[in-house]
Amino acid sequence: MEKSPKHDLRAIARQFQIYGEYRSAEAYGSGHINDTYAVVFDQAGAPARYVLQRINHNIFKNPVALMENVQRVTAHLAGKLSGERDFSRRVLTLVPTRGGLCYHRDEPGSYWRVYLFIEKARSYDAVESPRQAFEAAQAYGRFQKLLADLPAPRLHDTIPDFHHTPKRFAALETAITADAANRASLAKAEIEFALSHKPITGVLLDANLPERVTHNDTKFNNVMLDDVTGEGVCVVDLDTLMPGLALYDFGDMVRTTTSPAKEDERDLSKVTMQFAMFEALVRGYLTAAGDFLTRPEKQHLAFCGKLITFEIGIRFLTDFLAGDTYFKVHREGHNLDRCRTQFKLVESIEQQEDKMNQLVEGIQ
Questions:
Q1: Which residues contact 100 (CB under 8 A, 6 or more apart)?
Q2: CA dihedral 300, 302, 305, 306 (to 10 degrees)
Q3: Domain at 9-117: CATH code
Q4: CA 70 to chain centre
Q5: How many angstroms from the chain centroid is the CA of residue 271?
Q6: Distances, alpha carbon 31 to alpha carbons 34, 35, 53, 56, 339, in Å
Q7: Cβ-based burial of 3 (10 A; exposed 0-12, middle 13-18, buried ≥19)
Q8: Cα 279–chain centre separation
Q9: How many whole angstroms from its chain centre is CA 230?
Q10: DSSP state, 231?
Q11: Residue spans per domain, the chain
């Protein structure tokens, strides 16, 4: 499509240092937050693709701070990788505006950015094999390791307290008491499960783990895999880059990669923590990150998957009780279905936790 209903994509793309003749733009990717387009320009008779994105400033309240984070991190990564083979495909490259900024603000107030398109690689919405899980985890581990020496100042918090599980739990308790949508009676079992797990909410924060630069949205589809080799090439979707615990990232990998079921699967018999996938994640992650992680961080690798899965579960439950005010829903009880899926995965992790810890201890 040449134009979206709201935006003149040709005019917006021309605000950036892209040379040649504009050809087309079409929606790209499966993200639900930002508007993303693959834009094609004719450059010396050959097509060249770019990724044009509109940042959702309803979710990310300070797009300028967000883009400062992205600019600092991508520049640091490019500097660290500059001597490596094919390094330009291993880090996102921002295209500056004609005025030299890393973003463009249009007249209605939307914020836009452009990246070079990474060719001959793609992301997958669902993991297909332990090898893919290994590659994704290795890419995330390498990402963290390369950013371990990012110079001061501290990155901006794009979403404050994003993984502060005790605060998420306090929000759930408030929602239970308020019962604003009169739904607590529909979620008695889930509320009971959540309340019984309150003791785990502060474990990572109480472990005195070092603050790292973290991605905070380490779904499998945020790593691009090479079309030929299957190697994890580039970590993408950097909007939630901010200071955090390394285990937030590993925990979300476990949550989103180890179960074959969809996040809102109603048939809970399909929800299980596949040990082979967990093993692939641990081996891939520690191959890249093992030499900079502390021993306490490694000791919590099995636990963090349970915690982050539980945290997302209580966020879905909180939103269900509040009347579906945050997450988009597509059917009645959608957030409760999502909550049940997360809690079933927590149970599956708990059943295998001893074995998971033994694996981690054996690999260290």
A1: none
A2: -100
A3: 3.30.200.20
A4: 14
A5: 21
A6: 7, 8, 11, 11, 21
A7: exposed
A8: 20
A9: 20
A10: -
A11: 9-117, 130-363
> Does the fold of domain 130-363 match that of domain 9-117?
no
pTM: 0.93
pLDDT digits (tens), the chain, 364 positions: 334 447 899 999 999 999 999 999 999 877 667 889 999 999 999 999 999 999 988 888 899 999 999 999 999 999 999 988 888 899 999 999 999 999 999 999 999 999 999 999 999 988 999 999 999 999 999 999 999 999 999 999 988 899 999 999 999 999 999 999 999 999 999 999 999 999 999 999 999 999 999 999 999 999 999 999 999 999 999 999 999 999 999 999 999 999 999 999 999 999 999 999 999 999 999 999 999 999 999 999 999 999 999 999 999 999 999 999 988 889 999 999 999 999 999 999 999 999 999 999 998 7
CB-neighbour burial class of residue 83 (10 A; exposed 0-12, middle 13-18, buried 19+): exposed
Domain covering 130-363 assigned CATH 3.90.1200.10 in the classification: yes
The tokens describing 198, both together, are 């309150």
